[in-house]
Design a protein that fits this description.
Length: 364
């Protein structure tokens, strides 16, 4: 190959390499510009993480901080609040972009953030002392209730006074007076009235008086009623209540006395039972003493008879199987045999006649 030709080829290769390098530089520059655009912060938004429009004093509220584009850095955020009694800053130990607003005194409060020259949107809230507000509302409600109650009482008094001016009060002057649904004796008996009961008279219908009984129009024979004043009606009511109280007290005293009598009755029954038991024990003790005395007398008589028989040379012993005759020698032997017990006579009675004879014969 000629030298000239080789030179052209080398020049071509150099041009290709240069063009390739230029294209690569352009690509790298474009990538760098694109990456810078992706990481460059364009806007910031703060989003409340709560639904309240009014905030309570001295309380914490969270906001989420987001930037656009999403990959933009938010490391150098400045947290701003226009209330000197409040604080606004990043939440401690939080890996996400969460800011915490701690409210202070009542009033209007505005918060926002800045990162370099980029400023977020602002959020404005009303700070209210909820506890104080609740107390004020409760006090206002009580005041309204009191005013309404006073107004109702005043209206009721006015109505009562108006009714008192035109109403006539009648009082029952007999016992077991029947109040009826209609002005005749064939209709329903609403209730039986007591002497001293008072009602408001509506009108007179022949020989019946129409009265107001708890809002119901009823009738009582006029001859069993008399018109009274409000004072007399109140006095009659007071007397009836007093009598009812006295009757109640007497009834309670009667029940108390009956209860005491009932409580005493078991004690009296117990005393009678104890006396009967004591009498029975005494009777039994007397019977046992008499029985023992009889037994002792019989034993003494038997001993006396045995002694008499022994003196005569023959002794009768009350054996287990009945009385039997023994010689004085046999008797003396038995006495000597059981003398160590101190109950020789009794020991003899525990054996039959044959057992005693055998005992004697085996030793003689």
């Amino acid at each position: 190959m000629s030298r000239r030709r080789m030179g052209k080829r080398r020049a071509t290769q150099i041009l290709v390499i240069a063009a390739t390098v230029f294209v690569l530089v352009l690509i790298v520059a474009a990538v760098v510009v694109l990456l810078n655009n992706i990481k460059t912060l364009k806007s910031i938004k703060i989003t409340p993480q709560f639904a309240e429009t009014e905030l309570d004093v001295n309380s914490d509220y969270e906001f989420k901080i987001t930037g656009s584009p999403a990959k933009a850095s938010l490391k150098s955020i400045e947290y701003l609040v226009d209330d000197a009694t409040a604080t606004f800053g990043k939440k401690e130990d939080s890996s996400s972009n969460i800011a915490v607003l701690h409210t202070g005194a009542e009033g209007t409060i505005t918060v926002y953030v800045k990162c370099g020259k980029v400023k977020s949107d602002t959020k404005t809230f009303q700070v209210v002392d909820f506890a104080k507000k609740a107390q004020e509302e409760e006090a206002a409600a009580r005041a309204r209730e009191a005013e309404a109650a006073e107004a109702a009482a005043a209206a009721a008094q006015v109505e009562e006074e108006a009714n008192a001016e035109v109403s006539t009060i009648v009082m029952v002057n007999g016992d077991n007076v029947r109040m009826r649904a209609e002005p005749n004796t064939d209709c329903e008996v609403v209730r039986t009235c007591k002497k001293g009961d008072t009602y408001t008279k509506i009108e007179t219908v022949e020989d019946w008086t129409k009265i107001d009984y708890d809002g119901r129009e009823c009738y009582i024979k006029t001859e069993f009623l008399k018109e009274v004043t409000a004072e007399e009606a109140e006095q009659a009511k007071a007397d009836a209540e007093k009598k009812a109280e006295e009757d109640k007290k007497k009834e309670e005293e009667k029940k108390t006395e009956e209860k005491k009598e009932e409580e005493k009755k078991p004690d009296a029954d117990a005393d009678a039972a104890a006396k009967a038991a004591a009498d029975e024990a005494a009777k039994k003790a007397a019977e046992e003493a008499a029985k023992k005395a009889a037994e002792d007398a019989a034993a003494a008589a038997a001993a006396q008879a045995a002694a008499a028989q022994a003196a005569a040379g023959s002794v009768t012993i009350n054996c287990k199987d009945g009385p039997a005759q023994f010689t004085k020698a046999e008797y003396d032997y038995f006495l000597a045999t059981w003398s160590y017990t101190g109950m020789a006579e009794e020991m003899m009675t525990h054996h039959s006649a044959s057992e005693l004879h055998t005992l004697y014969n085996n030793t003689h």
